[in-house]
Amino acid sequence: MDKTKNGLKGEVLRSCPKDYRRSAELSFNTKKGRIAVTAVGLAAAALCFAVGCIAVPVSELYNVSGIWHLMLRFLVIVVLTCAYLALFELLHSVVLKKLLGASTLRVNAACRSFWFTSSDWFSVKAYFTAALLPTAAMFLILLLAGIILPSSLFWIVYIIQIINLAIPAPYYCLACGLLKKKPKAALIRDEKDAIGIWTA
């Protein structure tokens, strides 16, 4: 069992132990997997939207003088979304490398977008630390921005917050599956189109 030297209590492994076998997966290629991930993501987004409407009416988003100001506002949202996604992945990379000591791989996509992944095997604790810590950090940053900024700009920031909380949908699904099965010891690994679970 090859452990990373600086991992979170040795809970990140370079190779899978011989007595572990693949027992389950959350696949993004199957119809059932896509439906589950989409449903959880939409539910999280809808809940966040409802909370936002309670804080500040969504009409504030359109409360501008003229179509050009409205288009400019939506352009700002698009730019901030791109900046958020880049910052989120950079935070993800820092958590993987510095906190967990895991190997990382940058995957480049269209329009200069990218994300970081790892081929290592993670304990449940280490995996969800890597998956959800960047979301928690961005949540606090966006929450602070939403409190400081005037209500007229609230929804510009809050739309990014909705995206931030809806993105971890696959991890919510995986967490539910793990809690349901309650494995004594499990290892989790990100794959190309799935999240695999290995148990002894």
Description:
The chain is of the alpha+beta class. Helices cover 55% and strands 16% of the residues. The protein contains 5 helices and 7 strands. The strands form 2 sheets. Strands 1-5-6-7-2 form a 5-stranded antiparallel beta sheet. A two-stranded antiparallel ribbon has the order 3-4. β3 and β4 (114-117) form a beta hairpin. The mean pLDDT is 87.
Mean pLDDT, as a whole number?
Answer: 87
Strand content: 15-25%
Q: What is the string of SSEs from the N terminus onward?
A: EEHHEEEHHHEE
What order do the strands of the largest sheet run in, or round the barrel if closed? 1-5-6-7-2
Total strand count, please?
7
Distance separating the two termini: 13 Å
Shape call: elongated
Number of alpha- plus pi-helical segments: 5
Q: Helicity, in percent?
A: 40-55%
For the largest beta-sheet, the strand count, sense and barrel status come to: 5 strands, antiparallel
Structural class: alpha+beta
How many whole angstroms does the radius of gyration measure?
19 Å
In brief, what are we looking at here?
55% of the residues lie in helices and 16% in strands. The chain is built from five helices and seven strands, in the order E-E-H-H-E-E-E-H-H-H-E-E.
Topology:
Layout lengths: L11 E2 L7 E7 L3 H25 L11 H33 L5 E4 L5 E4 L3 E3 H25 L5 H13 L2 H13 L4 E5 L3 E6 L1
Antiparallel strand pairs: 1-5, 2-7, 3-4, 5-6, 6-7
Helix pairs in contact: 1-4, 1-5, 2-3, 2-4, 3-4
Identify the notable features of this structure and list them briefly.
200 residues, alpha+beta, five-stranded antiparallel beta sheet, two-stranded antiparallel sheet, 5 helices
